[in-house]
Amino acid sequence: MFLMSNFGTFLCSENGKLFSRSLLEMTSTIEAVSLVKTLEGFYLSADGTTDNVFDIEKKIFGRAVTTDYCHIENEKTPGFIHLRTPHGYLSVNNNNDISFSKPHPYGWETFRLISKEDLEILIDLSKCSLVFEGKWNKLSPEGSSNETLKFGSINVSIDDYLTQFHQFPDEMEFFHYDDWSPSLIQIARPAIVYIIYGGGDIIRQFKYSIQSLCEFGKYRDEVIVVTDNDANYIKNICASAGAINVTIIPSIGHDRMDYVGVRVRIFASTLFNKYRPVIYTDADIIFDQDCKELLDTSLKMNHISAAVEDGHYLDKDTSNGKTLFDEKPFNFSERPEGFNAGLMLIPSGRNFRKYFQAAYTALTRYVRKNGRNSIPYYDQSLLNYIFHKIHIFSKSPITEHNQFWLEDMSEPHGAAHFWIAAFQRADKMRGYIDLLRKEKERDTSHDLTLESTPPLPRPESTKRSVNSSTLPFHTPSSSVPLTQAQPTGGTDG
Predict the structure, then answer these.
(1) CA–CA separation, 9 and 454 (whole Å)
(2) Domain 2-115 class?
(3) Closest by CA position to 264, among listed 419, 381, 402, 370
(4) How far apart (Å, rounded) are the C-alpha atoms in residues 486 and 481?
(5) Nearest to 345 by CA among 401, 289, 384
(6) For residue 416, which of 345, 337, 343 has the smallest C-alpha distance?
(7) 3-state secondary structure of 2
(8) Helix-strand-coil percent breakdown of the chain, rounded to 5?
C-alpha cells in the first residue's frame, strides 16, 4: 500500500532519498514508496521489498542494517492511518517537508492508504482535464487533499471517483456530487500525434508544425511522436517550440507502406486508450488558430473527422479508395466524399480503436494477397473505404477548420495543410508562420493604439452617451478578411 498525505501528495524515492510529490509530478507507481510488513513492524520501501527500506536516522534507502520500523495506528476513518516510528510520527507539511519527530498525530500526520491499482488510476486522472460547463479544469495540487482532488472549482471526492471508475472503467465521464446533487463531468486528455521518419526536409516541416501548434494553436497538452529518429533529438525540437509533455514511440520503417501504414497500426493498438480526443497530424500542417474550439467540439462527437477534398469521391478517385471500392462495392445513400487523412480527429482512442483494428486487419489481408504496393495511396485509400462503409466518418468539424495551401492563403481556419506545395513545403510553411506573426504584431499594435487614444470629449449640449458606431475608429477582426482558400483535389498522403 502507498501513503497519500493530508495534502494529496505521495511519498516517493529517487536516488536513495525520500520525497513528497504531487500526482502531477508522478508518472508511475514505480516512484512511490510503499509500506512492507515484517515480523517487527512496517518499513517504508522503495521497491516493495524489504531489500530497499528507508533508514530514518540516516535518511536514506538501502542501509545494510536498519532498525527503524514503524507501527500503524488506525484513524477513526477506515483506510486512514498514523505511522509511529521510534523517533515520532511521520509527518508531511504543506511545503512537502518530511519529518519523523512529531510527538502527537494531527492532520499533517494523517495518511490515506492507497492500493497500487488505485494509485495508477489517480495518476492517470491527474494528467487529464475535467470539463464542466464548457470550462477545462486542470489538477491543482494546492487545495487537494487525501480526500478530494481540486480541479479548478471542482473538488473531486476520491472515494466517489474510484467507486465509479471500478464500476465503469471504460467511461470518460463521471458524476460529481454537490451534497446530493449530481453533475456529469467529462474527462479529457488530448493527444496530438505525429509520425516522423527520416530527416532533412521532413524534420524542417515538423519543426514549423510543432512551433505553430504551441504558438498559434496554444496547445499545452500531450504530444506523441512516432519516429525512427533519436528520442532526445525529437524532444529537443519539441522543447524549443514550447512542447514539454512529449512521448516518443520508436518505430522502424523500410518502405512507403511502413511510413504511412503505421498510422493505422498505432491507432489499432492500446497505446491511445487513455486519450480523448486524439488528433493525428502530418508534419506539413501549420496550426494557425487556438485549438480549444476544436477540442471542445470533439467531446460531443461520435465520428472520426477529416477534411474532404473538393470534388473527390470514394467511387471516383484512386487517392480516396476507388481501387478498393471497385473490387468490393457497397450501397450508399449519399455519395461518399473523399477525405485527406493528413489531419484526423479521433474523439476517443479507446472507443474508436475497434475501427482502426478493422482497417488494420483489412490492410494486412489485402497486401498479403496483392502485394505491399497494391493499394494506391496506401492507408488513405483504405481509411476512406472502411470509414465510409461502416458509417463512422464525418467531414465536420475538420473540414471547416482546415484549408489546403494556396499562394494567397492568409486567413486562419485552424489548420493549413501544405502537401500541395510538394518540395517547397518547408519554405512555404515558414513563410506562412512569418505572415501570421506579422498579423499578430499588427493587431497587437493596433490594440495598443486604441488603448492609448484618449476618450472623445462628451458634448455639453446633450446628456446621451456616445454610441460606439459614431466613433471614428473600429477594432479590427483578428485576421485579415481575404478570400477563403478552397480545398484542392489530389493528395500524396
Answers:
(1) 52
(2) mainly beta
(3) 381
(4) 15
(5) 401
(6) 343
(7) strand
(8) 30, 30, 40
CB 161 within 8 A of CB 123: no
Tell me, what amino acid is at 368? R
Q: pLDDT digits over 63-113, tens only? A: 888 877 888 988 778 899 999 988 899 999 999 999 998 999 999 999 999
Q: Identify the DSSP state of 321.
A: T
Residues listed for the chain: 493
Q: What is the pLDDT of residues 289-298, one digit of tens each?
A: 999 999 999 9
| Confidence (pLDDT) at 487 | 35
pLDDT, position 366: 93
| Non-local CB neighbours of 413 within 8 Å, separated by 6+ positions | 288, 289, 400, 401, 402, 403, 484
d(CA 315, CA 390): 15
Q: Which residues have C-beta within 8 Å of that of residue 6, sequence separation ≥ 6?
A: 92, 107, 108, 110, 111, 145, 146
pLDDT at 270: 95
Give yes or no for a contact between 287 and 414, defined as CB atoms under 8 angstroms apart. Answer: yes
* Residue closest to 404 by CA, chosen among 306, 259, 298, 470: 306
CATH superfamily ID and name for 191-417: Spore Coat Polysaccharide Biosynthesis Protein SpsA; Chain A (3.90.550.10)
Helices (H) and strands (E) in the chain, counts: 11, 28
> Which phi and psi angles does 208 have, rounded to 5°?
-70, -35
Cα torsion 298, 304, 309, 312 to 10°: value is -150
Q: What CA–CA distance (Å, rounded) separates 32 from 46?
A: 7
Own/partner contacts of 38-42, CB < 8 Å, gap of 24 or more, are 38/69, 40/67, 40/69, 41/69, 41/70, 41/71, 42/69, 42/70, 42/71, 42/72, 42/83
Yes or no: say if 193 and 278 are a contact pair by the CB < 8 Å rule: yes
Rounded Cα–Cα distance for residues 67 and 50 (Å): 12
CA dihedral sign, ordered 208, 212, 215, 219: negative
Residues 6+ apart with CB under 8 A from 59: 17, 18
C-alpha cell at 139: 489538477
For residues 280 and 337, give the distance between their C-alpha atoms in angstroms, rounded to a whole number. 20
Q: Amino acid identity of 344? A: M
* Gap between the terminal Cα atoms of the chain: 49
pLDDT at 386 over 70: yes
Strands ordered across the beta sheet of 181-188: 135-137, 129-132, 181-188, 173-178
Q: pLDDT band for 212, please (50, 70, 90 cuts).
A: very high
Domain boundaries defined on the chain: 2-115, 128-188, 191-417
Task: Flag whether pLDDT at 445 surpasses 80.
Answer: no
